[in-house]
Amino acid sequence: MFKGKDWIVLMLALVLVACGDQVADQAAILSLQEMPGGYDVPSVIDNIGTSVVIQFTTGVPVMCSVAYGTDITYGDLATMPMMGGATQDHAVTLPGLTPNITYHYRLTLTDEQAHVYQSEDLTFTTAPSEPPPPAALPEGENVASLAAGARVIAVSSNFGGGDNDSSFGANKAIDGEPSTEWSSNGDGDDAWIEIELAQTYDVDTIGFWTRTMANDTAQIFSFTVTTDEGETHGPFDLSDATQIYYFPVDFTAHTLRFDAVATNTGNTGAVEIEVYGEPHR
Description:
- By secondary structure, this protein is mainly β.
- The protein contains 1 helix and 15 strands, in the order H-E-E-E-E-E-E-E-E-E-E-E-E-E-E-E.
- It folds into 2 domains: 6-125, Sandwich (Immunoglobulin-like), CATH 2.60.40; 146-279, Galactose-binding domain-like (Jelly Rolls), CATH 2.60.120.260.
- Strand 2 (43-45) and strand 3 form a beta hairpin.
- The protein starts with 5 loop residues before the first helix and ends with a strand.
């Protein structure tokens, strides 16, 4: 049984092995199938989008850590509490996750005889973010529309290298037609569009409808808005691509730049972008 400083030292060694540090001969690392008493396949519970809990049991008491990240290089590590000692029932929280993203993870376990066991690469997908509280349906005119005198003054790109008036050009995001859309030329998280309003407005509501493709790619999950005064607001979360979502805001602006923050890459863009407010006095 671990005593005194012994289990603390072993826990530190466990962390280093989990992180890939060469503190142990890789040939000495055993698979989970070799663990006495076996183990239950890990379950992913309490998946709220920004964190999950990895839950499992083992046939013998062990200390554990979980390496995790968006690819097999992992990069982040979660461990059981240092004062918890060895146990057969495990629940390790993985914090700091992004909603609707597939993560890789790997378990590293040490038993009371200092044998180290490691799982193969495992994956889970985080839950989508919770829909934002609905803003009241905006009143008045959408001042970011072409009809209201707004115009696109810059854009990250248009699909196929077209201009703003092309089939998937940036003007499609402010034409008031949900049957058309702006698509970037594969910009993914780097997609952005800058809109100049006809005058300066005290803005109280913005609306954004992300485009997507038939296979649910090219979708924006969150975005920010930056004013001509250099103020950045958001990120604002988009729960899906089925409709426009409105967000209450409070700022004054003549131009607004909308930047994608989290996407599932590809030809990201917007079906419609709307802005509501009163002329600044």
